[in-house]
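Reopening: structure tokens for the magnesium ion complex, inputs below.
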Amino acid sequence: MQLTDAISVVKGIGEKTEKGLNKLGIYTVQDMLEHYPRAYDIYGRLMNINEIEEGEMAVFVGYMYMNIETKKVRHLTIASCRVKDATGSIGLTWFNMPYIKNTLKSGSYYIFRGKASRKNGMLVIEQPKILSKEEYYNKKDVLQPIYPLTNGVTNNLLSKTVKAIIEEIDLTGDFLPSTIRKENDLVEYRFAVKQIHFPKDKEEMLRARKRIVFNEFFLFTLALTYMKEEKSKKIRKNPYDRGSISDALIEGLPYELTNAQKRAWNEIMKDMCDGVIMNRLVQGDVGSGKTVLAALALAMNAENGYQGTLMVPTEVLAKQHFESLSKLYEPFDISCLLLTGSMTAKEKRLAYEKIKNKEVSVVIGTHALIQEKVEYADLGLVITDEQHRFGVKQREILSTKSENPHVLVMSATPIPRTLAIILYGDLDISVVDELPANRLPIKNCVVNTDYHSTAYRFIENQIQEGRQAYIICPMVEESESMEAENVIEYTQKVREALPPFIRTEYLHGKMKPKEKNEIMEQFAKNEIQVLVSTTVIEVGVNVPNATVMMIENAERFGLAQLHQLRGRVGRGDHQSYCILVSGSRSKETKKRLEILNTSNDGFYIAGEDLKLRGPGDLFGIRQSGDMEFKLGDIYNDAKVLKAANEAAKNMSISEIQKLCSKNERLKHQLEGYIGTTL
Ligand code: ADP
Ligand code: MG
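Re-run output (same inputs, fresh job):
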């Protein structure tokens, strides 16, 4: 068995299962090995009932002192009862499991396990598992992988498949030189793969994790080294003429640029007018006004006779940028074009033609921009917005669509400078560290779930005053396919809680781009007042009239992500509010959310968050889930990132090639990264 083999080589994987695995992004044996557990399940010690906390997993012995009652509510059969021990009692509920009534006998003791939640102010456990003594003691203190799932793919299937692969595949031949391994106290790769999936205990798992994270960062640095080398080979470019359009654009803005924006614009301009090839990252907190910098650079590029592109991660954002840029460019002779994946084949063909014949000078779109069929006429500038959503590879493909385009990358991810230098090692950095002066700081509050009705009243009042609101829906843990259902159900609840003149709609990841665009457009026009959404809303969206961001299950998000979500409000002249609803009363959650409550500064938040959670806090939440690392988290694993960078950055191209020639696996992975053959 080889890592590059299709996953169907594993015994027992038929066509149907393979399709399911494909949905999870698993095509090869390697993909399967790199489908890492998102968490591990541990059956801890038996708790007392009075120790059970909201939002936490509990396992305990309960005495059935009453019979189970069942009732029917719409299509649901609900079975419920209460159990007790010497310290207290708790409610249990099961849905659509009428036979439970015959399984559990009043007057007996059972071991129950489940997550506690609060219903009408009381703690209950929904769908608790019933464990035999044997089951419990067999599983106690053993870490069992919990994998990301999809419809038709069970945790059991994944864990069996991984086990089968590990038994058969040859993972010897570690590509990391043993000196590097020793220096950094790293376990062997083969051992790491086994232990990350089936760790003996937490300590082993952390060691395995460290090694795999190191690998990811090491490979990443090698890829950067390669690209830097490629770039330094490139010749100089004809210097741009400063022209008059960008100044006229600035003159015509309804506001004055902040000093930070002016500084960044000067740096961009200098790059382009100096005859070097720009490779620049613009890093600025949400709402710091990065879009206008892109608009200025694209205008200057057009005035110099070149085509330019602006690539963004979502269709909603592409549309929004297209509209605001078109409007901005109206007085000038700059034509814009929108190119997205959801356009019809005919529309796309037309767009390709216009691009090729140079009928347009600014092309805005999603990753459709880098499709093979797009041929640019004379690409002078390539901008990617919200860069953390794109891999190095995509950025690279776009810049190879022409000889030597200027490259500008815009990101709101608050990465400390020391890390940014590593992660964007091939780029110069401009920092936009100032918010427009007219902004009122967002008012924050952290509340628990009892606060719902007050929050809805608050939203209602804001809407009465003409404003709008976002609500980030509670999360479903079980599977992504339930996400849609969950959003729809929750939206219904919100509709019932608000008066009928308020229009509430929803947005989720499973909707077609066209549907999403329509909803977003109506929200932008205030035809929709409340938008219930999953986190698909988080990047870049700009509706300045929205003043409330209410986030359910705030405890489940990383602080950086919460900060991004919050950044959707506070974009206009009105006072804005962020309501963080936490389903957990744990001290740690409180402390973490308190950071967000007291600060609106993304860099400060990322730094404080880092202090609170030690490295190896594996059960924590991934902060940078959209970076290109599967396991590594640039915040939590900052130390490993630095170490891997140290180890890799001084390798010369010939050393890297030598390493690759000795190890097919490394070569293969590195090629995957940079998108070309070595
Ligand atoms: P981000 O940096 O998050 O991409 P945007 O570019 O979307 O931020 O800008 C957010 C909002 O701020 C937009 O409505 C934009 O028009 C406005 N804006 C940008 N620069 C300024 C400024 N200097 N003064 C006032 N408003 C500004
Ligand atoms: Mg933006």
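Residues 443-599 form a domain with the Rossmann fold fold (CATH 3.40.50.300). The first strand starts at residue 39 and ends at 41. Marking as resolved unless the reporter disagrees.
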